[in-house]
Structure formats: C-alpha cells, structure tokens
Design a protein that fits this description.
Number of helices: 18
Shape: globular
Order of helices and strands: HHHEEHEEEHEHHHHHHHHHHHHH
Largest sheet: 6 strands, mixed
Number of domains: 4
Number of strands: 6
Radius of gyration: 25 Å
Structural class: alpha+beta
Oligomer: single chain
Length: 480
C-alpha cells in the first residue's frame, strides 16, 4: 500500500450503495482503486466480505407463494419474500445501530406500491427525528462522506418486511401479507397514504360518503362550520363493520348501503386495542397532504384563469417563471419537489396577477400562500408556536373559495392540529408531521428499483423467486 490505511469492506459497501453500483461495477471500482493506490489499499477478500454483508440477514427472510389480487380483477400466484420475525429484525438492527428501546425511537411501518412492487417497510427514527439538510451545506471529512444518505430513519436505513410484484393494494392482499408478518410484540405507527389507510381500516374508498380515516364526518359536512368530527376508534370500526356484514346477510340479495355504517365494511387489520383512536395509529400523511392540497389549488387556479375572457396570463406562464413544466404523467399532478416549488413561488404568482390586473384569482393565490405557511410551520421535523393559527387562516382562505373540501383538505383543517397536540409530550420540543412522515417509504421505490436492476430476471423465469429473495436480503443487510 502506498500510504494510508486500507478501505474496510463495510465502507466499500456504503460506497456501493451511494452510487447504486452493480456487483460488476463494484468489482471494477475496486480494481481501479487497487491499480491507483496499491493492491493493499482495500481490505483483502473484498468480494467474499461484501457477499457476507449482503447475506447478514438471510436467516430472517423466507419465500412463499400466495394467490393474490392482481390487475383487472384477476387472481394469480405470486412469489412473496417476507420477514419471519419482524421483532427480531428490529432488535438486531437497533443493537447494530446502538439504539436502545429506552431512547424513544419511533418505529414506522410503511405500506405502499411503487416501481411495480407492493412493499411493506420498517423505519427506525431516532427520538430527535431526522436532520434537515441545510441548503448549500457541505460535509466535513470528519463527518464522513454523504452523511445525510445514511441517517437512521432515512431511505438508506429503511428495511423491507415483505414485497410482492404486480399485485394490487386490496384488502385481501394486505391481510394475507400482514398475517405472514404477524406484527406483534412492538408498538409502531403506520406510515401510509390515504388509500391504504382506508384499506387496512376496513373502510370504503376515499370517494365514499364518509371517506375520512380519522373521523365519521360525512363528505358533505367537511365545510359545515357546525361539524362535530367524531373520531373513529379501531373498536368502533370493528363494531360497525360487523353490523354492516350482518345486515348484508339478513337482507341478501338486496343491496345495503354502507353509508349507514359510516362506510365500515371489513374488520380493521391493525392489531391494536379496540380503544385505540385511528389518529393515534395512523398519523396524517404529510407528503400526500402536501400533494393533494397543492394540486387541488393549482387546478382551481388553472380553471379560473382559463375561464376569464381576454386573460393575458396562464398557469403555464407561472410555471415557466418557476422553471417547471406541467407533468404528463400521474394525471398531470405535480410531485413533491414541484409542489414545494409552487408554494415557494406564490409571491411570484401574486405579482404576475397584479401586473395583469387579474384580481379575481387572488383568493386562490392567497389560499396557496396560507398553505405554504401551514407547511412551513408544522410539516417539517418541528413546529412553530403559531401553527394552529396558520391552519385556521388556511381554513378560512380555502372556505372562502367556495369549492369542494376534499378529504385531504379536511385532514389539514381538522386533524393535523389534533394529531400534533395529541402526539407531542408537554415539556418536550414539539415535533412536526415530518417525524411521522411516509416520505421515506415513497423514496424507497426508486432506491429498491436501482438495486433490483442488478438481480432482475423475467417474472416467469424459474429462478425469479430466488433472485427476488436474494435481492431483498441484500437490500436489508446493506441498510442494517
């Protein structure tokens, strides 16, 4: 070796993760390092040691085949890789990270579809939450390379609990996989979007009469100033679902409206005491609330500007000023970073509307600005002291528009403050929605897809199940 100490295999594994290198690319990188710095510049037997790192958690994962709901209402056999003992996995990883159960770490179990896979994930978030990376900040060599990439609770520390390819997010699929996992013996919060939250609670979809997962308020009453917002409990949903199913049996073959039972149609899949409020088990999903509200207000702005005669300004003009383009995918909805850019560019929008005398659209811009203030005050890792007032200001601005209150707008108006006041402990720094956010689960889709490219094989190939199993074990072992 020509100076310095050998790079440990574990650090080379982090290097491999950060750059999303395949096995072949990692081998080539090691060859370049050794040619440049000497054959002893990297720990000996690198290949076997990287292989050992990738198989460290092999004893905790198994492969099975189940008939599952797939596209177009079909049921087909699917290979599922799952963790046989989630509690043992969490204990082993916490010991490796030197995290104690007494440290107040939050365990989040996420469920989401993306990149062609339905994933069940677990994330261990330290009590102080994740650090916000300052814009333009630079790491020091003492802190290590890419320190933000490997923070506990971040995507590079997220673990898979189960995975299945090309299956739907149906109640039956979720039930089958949750039965395999048997998530008992530890407390966790569910980091899910609104669609899956309703599914695991046994509720009908978000277009139903009572779409809110947290309360029994009817959709038509979301804008009613006298609404009561009776909170849902796990036991309450279970009881109403039982009554619904009993009524269906008694009145068959006549149809029974689930609205009379607050749209509770199946028993909840969460194994928690019946007295548990849904708001305690499933936090408001910050990322999806950001997406839903921002896109709804942008849609309203676009509708109003298009409806004006001789209007000299359009939403495309605003997007051009922000360096954005209207998305062609996902129904034309903006993703997370673009939504943040829209909110941060509200002042530009207001100036453009004033310059062209389009004052009729100012209320929408005002609502966007109020929502920006809400996001800044309580959607991050901590909250500002006046976040409740900002939520109330947004509520008034939105109601003044006279448009339909969507389930996500309702969640921001009625349940964000409730949840934060319920979940934060008096005398301790108040945490924002970001502490419980589902965002890391969303980010995992791209992260896993990058690694899957190194293992990918045709879905119908006989070796597919083993390759999927090997990929999941390696993914989790590197993230441990």
């Amino acid at each position: 070796m020509r100076g310095g100490c050998a790079v440990p295999a574990e650090e080379f594994s982090r290097f491999q993760q950060t750059l999303c290198l395949s096995g072949r690319q990692t081998k080539l990188a090691a060859q370049f390092f050794r040619a440049w710095k000497g054959c002893k510049s990297i720990e000996p037997n690198l290949r076997s040691k990287l292989s050992a790192i990738d198989s460290a958690l092999d004893d905790l994962f198994e492969l099975t085949n189940l008939e599952m709901d797939c596209a177009k209402g079909k049921r087909e056999m699917r290979s599922i890789v799952f963790c046989t003992d989630p509690l043992a996995l969490i204990d082993r990883v916490m010991a490796r990270r030197q995290v104690s159960a007494d440290d107040g770490a939050l365990i989040k179990v996420g469920i989401d579809s993306g990149g062609g896979f339905l994933k069940f994930c677990v994330s261990i978030v330290p009590a102080q939450g994740l650090k916000d990376q300052p814009t333009g900040s630079r790491s020091t060599y003492a802190e290590g390379a890419c320190r933000f990439h490997f923070e506990d609770g971040g995507v590079r520390k997220l673990l898979l609990l189960a995975i299945a390819e090309s299956v739907s997010e149906s109640y039956d699929n979720l039930q089958q996989i949750l039965n395999l996992l048997n998530l008992q013996g530890f407390s966790f919060c569910a980091a899910v979007d609104m669609k899956i939250s309703n599914a695991i609670l046994g509720l009908q979809c978000c277009s139903s009469t009572h779409p809110c997962p947290w309360c029994e308020t009817a959709r038509i009453d979301f804008s009613n100033p006298d609404r009561t917002n009776v909170l849902r409990s796990i036991g309450g949903i279970r009881l109403q679902a039982f009554e619904y199913q009993r009524t269906v049996e008694e009145k068959a073959p006549r149809n029974v409206s689930a609205a009379a039972f607050k749209n509770c149609v199946r028993p909840p899949l969460l194994e928690v005491p019946d007295s548990t409020m849904v708001l305690q088990a499933i936090p408001p999903m910050g990322l999806h609330l950001l997406l839903g509200v921002t896109n709804r207000l942008f849609e309203e702005l676009d509708t109003q500007l298009r409806g004006l005669e001789d209007c000299q300004i359009s939403t495309d003009d605003w997007l051009q000023q922000l360096g954005l383009r209207r998305p062609l995918q996902n129904g034309g909805n903006f993703a997370g970073n673009a939504c943040e850019c829209l909110l941060n560019g509200v002042d530009i929008l207001i100036a453009m509307l004033a310059q062209h005398n389009v004052f009729s659209a100012m209320p929408v811009a005002h609502a966007l600005r109020c929502f920006r203030d809400v996001k800044a005050s309580c959607f991050g890792m901590s909250v500002c002291g006046d976040f409740e007032n900002r939520v109330r200001a947004f509520e008034q601005a939105y109601i003044d528009l006279g448009i339909r209150v969507t389930p996500k707008v309702h969640a921001v108006i009625d349940h964000v403050v409730q949840f934060l006041n319920m979940s934060n402990i008096a005398g301790e720094p108040k945490k924002g929605l970001g502490f419980w956010s589902e965002q890391v689960v969303e980010t995992a889709h791209h992260d896993f897809s990058s690694m899957w490219q190194d293992f990918r094989i045709d879905f119908h190939h006989p070796s597919y199940p083993d390759r999927l199993h090997k990929c999941v074990v390696a993914y989790c072992s590197r993230h441990a």
